[in-house]
Amino acid sequence: MGWNNDFDIGAILIIGLLVLYYLVRQIIPIKRNKIFLNMMINVQVFALFDILGSASINWNIPLIFKFTFNILYYACLGLDTFLFGYFCYALTDKYREHDSSLLQKIYFVPLIIYELCVFTTPFTGLIFDIDNEGFTYGPGRIIVFINIVLYLTIGEGIIGKWGRRFRRMYRYAIAGYSICLIIGNIMQMFFMPYITMVAISETVGILTLYLSFETPENFIDKKVLLYNDEGYNEILFEYIRSGKRFKLVEMGIHNFSAMENVYGIDIRERALFEVGKYFRNKYPKHLIFYDDGRFYMFFNPDEDMKTIYKEACERFNETFHTPALGVKVSPYFAYLPEGYYFNDEKSLRTTMDNALYKAKDGEDMSVVIINDEIIADGKRDKKITTALERALDNNELKIFYQPIYDTKEKRITCAEALVRIDDPELGLIFPDDFIWRAERNGSILELGQQVFEKTCEFIKNYDIGKYGIHYIEVNLSPIQCMRAQLADEFEQIVKKAGISPSMINLEVTETASSSNMLKNNMLKLYTFGINFSLDDYGTGYSNLVNILKLPISIVKIDKSITWDYFQKGNTLLANVVKMFLERKMDIVVEGVETEEMARKLSEMGVHYEQGYYFSKPVPEDIFVKYLEDHMEEGSYNI
Ligand code: C2E
Ligand code: CA
Ligand code: CA
Fold first, then answer.
1. CA 362, CA 9: separation in Å to the nearest integer?
2. Which of 179-183, 214-218, 579-583 has the highest mean pLDDT?
3. 405, 435, 472: residue to mutate for ligand 1 pocket, most atoms within 8 A of CB
4. Is it the case that residue 614 has pLDDT exceeding 70?
5. Strand stretches in 379-410, DSSP E
6. What is the pLDDT of residues 185-205, one digit of tens each?
7. CA of 632 to the centre of ligand 3 (A)
8. 350 CA from centroid of ligand 1 (Å)
9. What percent of the chain has pLDDT over 70?
10. What is the CA radius of gyration of the chain?
């Protein structure tokens, strides 16, 4: 009986093409891609031995060759699903966590048993037998099937258990692969033993994976034709995991946003493509990545970075040619020398981000080299994020209060609530260190709410009105202002605390002032009885027209304006004060640090003053004590 191998030939052609693609398109050298490439090559090999094995039965050659061909076919077939299971593992978080559990250690065992059965078959006739009559299947043929099903099950199990973050598409593709293989094997085993189906079913499975998520394109930035951000993460992860030695350069572009405004997006993209091309040609063997205006490049530990830098300087001095015109690109760099250890790719990226951020302040071609100090900053960074999360989870934010002096009543009539985190390890953390983080990761909403609740409780618990305090100012982040439910939530909190809404004054900034959501929120809260101040006046581009449309009763002049006036004689402060007085708006001047400042401002007609001269922000009990001590008239000599 002869075999029909037509399907095998088809399989070899299709997979051959994919392998060619994979190699020409340059796959990013990460584990799962390497395994996938091996899977494809393995199919080629076993399809080839399938043909040789079945054709050779009728050839006039020594038996040993016939056995060898067939044994190799079965050996590769067993390896096939073994690789698949491993591939599944490399896709999961488990692999990312560097978890070498028991599973990994016993994963090889079934394969070894299987291969033993295969390689001893000439003596046992277990899987098949060949004699002068021809080829016959052996009694243990089912072992082939069991091995395949076992590893497919393990693969699917791994994805089921640890692949939760997967897109559905991935899961379907992986399930599709298994189904193809099972069908192919069942057909050949039970229905059409002499038409070789396994390789083609495997090919369809591989195609499913390839088209769903294993195309090399997934890791390539299509505009600049370098590897993309996703690829960068994967490589970093694998390098760190395997302890590979490397030097790393990240490059940002000073005029990245300006380039778009000046030249338009097409020309900018083209210029960046040229930059990418320059790097590709200059360092064809290096891994280079691009994402949104940033380039990432790995270098070998023995490369001379000074020369590389010098050459880059020369190149970037020239323009990059686009069809329309030459574009000047001005880069800055963060450089990670060899020998620093990182726990994971995230901490490396944060460190590099911070360094790049610093380099941005420098000139053209400025470089920030990672050193111990920057690494320490990075660690602190991580700790702050953790401290913030913990403080929010446990509702442990600390609110400090800074008194605000009223020049007309000549005493403290209000105060500003300022948040802090009291961390067991880091000590007192100031808002400049964590507010922007909370804004970036969204926890500012929770933070803002907790601050507001605590302030309301404070007003209630200490019955703060009896110290002559008219209201407490609470800062509102622009992100909170964008929240539709803000007004309702704050109303609820005020009602729950049982205080008068007039005891609260919310501080908003100009950045939020043009938003409709802010206006709606403000109007609702204003109707409810809460007043508003405009914070940080003078730090942004002030748009008075916008501001005057809002129900704002007080403007807070930023301390930088105050200091410019007293230290450098900049008259902006005087003009601003005059302008708001004419408009009958109240002003708070911040940053009042000396008696002289306090007196001068008072003479200028400033209504409220805030600053270290009166008091730094202090915890609630100290604040209350401060109020008690300064109740009497004449406490201040202004
Ligand atoms: P801000 O709203 O401008 O608050 C005034 C800041 O100036 C406070 O810094 C205060 O300690 C400081 N300050 C006051 N008087 C003087 C002075 O005379 N000299 C000097 N050198 N500094 C003075 P702090 O507490 O570190 O707060 C920084 C910023 O964090 C605040 O600036 C505010 O924008 C933000 N912030 C604070 N608490 C909150 C909050 O609960 N929510 C939100 N969204 N932001 C907050
Ligand atoms: Ca403020
Ligand atoms: Ca302020």
1. 61
2. 179-183
3. 435
4. yes
5. 398-406
6. 999 888 887 888 899 999 999
7. 28
8. 26
9. 98
10. 35
Is residue 598 predicted with pLDDT exceeding 60?
Answer: yes
* pLDDT for residue 561 is more than 60: yes
CA distance 579 to 573: 10
Mean pLDDT of all residues in the chain? 92
Residue 591 C-alpha to ligand 1 middle, in angstroms? 10
How do residues 69-81 score in pLDDT, each as one tens digit?
999 999 999 999 9
SS3 598: helix
Tokens at residue 454, please?
């605590």
The dihedral sign for the CA sequence 60, 65, 70, 76: negative
Which ligand has the shortest distance to the CA of 431?
Answer: 1
Q: What is the DSSP letter of 462?
A: T
CB atoms within 10 A of CB 277: 14
Pocket test for ligand 1, best of 475, 557, 594 (most atoms within 8 A of CB): 475
Give residue 443's identity as a one-letter amino acid code.
S
φ/ψ of residue 136, rounded to 5: -130, 145
**DSSP element (H, E) containing 589:** strand 586-589
Q: Is 591 in the pocket of ligand 1 (CB under 6 A)?
A: yes
* Cβ 550 vs Cβ 510: under 8 Å: no
Query: Three-state SS for 333?
Result: strand
Q: Which residues surround ligand 2, an ion (CB under 5 A)?
A: 475, 507, 535
Of the listed ligands, the closest to the CA of 592 is 1
